[in-house]
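cron nightly-structures :: item 1 of 1
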Amino acid sequence: MGAASECEALPFGRASVDGKFLSLGGQTFFVRGVTYGAFRPDDSGREYTDTRLIERDFAHMARLGINTVRIPHTVPPRSLLDAAARHGLRVMVGLSAEQGAGYLIDGKLPDDFVDRFRAKVRVCADHPALLCVALGNEIMASQARWLGCRRVTRYLHSLYKIVKKEDPQAIVTYVNYPTTEYLELPFLDLVSFNVYLETRDKLQAYLARLQNIAGDRPLLLTELGLDSLRHGELAQAAALDWQIRATAEAGAAGAIVFSWTDEWFRAGSQVEDWAFGITDIERNPKPAAHAVRKAFHETPFAPVGEWPKISVIVCTYNGARTLRECLSVLTTLDYPNYEVIVVNDGSTDETAAIALDYPVRLIEQSNKGLSVARNAGLAASDGEIVAYIDDDAFPHRYWLRYLAAVFSRSAHVGIGGPNLPPTGDGFIAECVANAPGNPLHVLLSDEIAEHIPGCNMAYRKEALVAIGGFDPRFRAGAPGDRQGVGGASPLR
């Protein structure tokens, strides 16, 4: 998938959360970003005043396939967001809540701090280039331990409510890091982490952990990178390549590279003893800039010679109420080589007629139960992989690509993923989803599952056939393979 600057303009409008991803103009928006700043302020204490440099930087970013600029520490002027919009970029704005955490010792935020925070929100509120708002960046671990998790959580929640009051459409996050991953912030729309790990296996393992922390929400890596001063420019380029690719493979909503340039101003002086930029202080591109461009261009799915054929099997009994929406999505998935098989298990409603409206293979049988229906779909399938989905489930556009990608790098025979309640499905549906006894995605580790949900499970066909398929004694809710793995195969 290419970046917008290389293939098509980004759609207008505000972004929204769509299951495990962000959406923009009805399309999945994969964040391909860089941090920008902090820079030396002018005599009046203002950053981001050199408009010609900003325009030049943003144009260069767009040519590299970057679509997001993260301003981590200073609320930028609205003119910067205007410039971003001109170059097809979105902006992640930081509100620096970490600077006010010390007030929590007194038990109450001063009115002037709240007023200043509200004023920061208003600077960027409702701007079409605004991607999301970060309440803060890395409250120090020592400070968080001293104050306690509950107090920090209440503090960030109070700031979250201020943002939502000023800009109800804003996507709100807080940028965390590994030493304070225990902070429980369930109110956030988006889960963000800064992660610096220098080996691929450790990053992949931690990404699996972060996906479990994120739960039903999107996960965004807001800083990753390598210091070229200590490791060399070629090592930096190589590291950024696999860091971006590993993040995409893990099903994250995107990655933000630290940083755009070696120019970095903190604590009253220019930082000179490290060089994380993908351009040097004069904005000359390093090898890392070309590596980032290539990795962003080829993620979330790198080019492959041939995608394996997948047979998607929908087993339904009197599913007319939801089947049409399910098939409408299934028949328009972004995957080059798949078939859809509908097994009608003796329905007495309009299920069969609805299935005939779509380019699917319809198998009719008398009512014999879910396991027999699944086995019938298995016997009729032509794919190397069989993927099962319920008639009331609606997959993400890239569902099959994530499944195939995980199978391609794994020896596991069964892979599944999350089962997310659709947005706005109603109070009753949310109660059912959280009721005791509802099937759960039970993890034995960050990646290995005790079982996988039947509405989102896939198997290598030869392995499933070898064990005889599903046990016909189970007429409803037949369990998935208990040796499954929790792969990056998101449903919404």
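cron nightly-structures :: done
The chain is about 35% helix and 20% strand.
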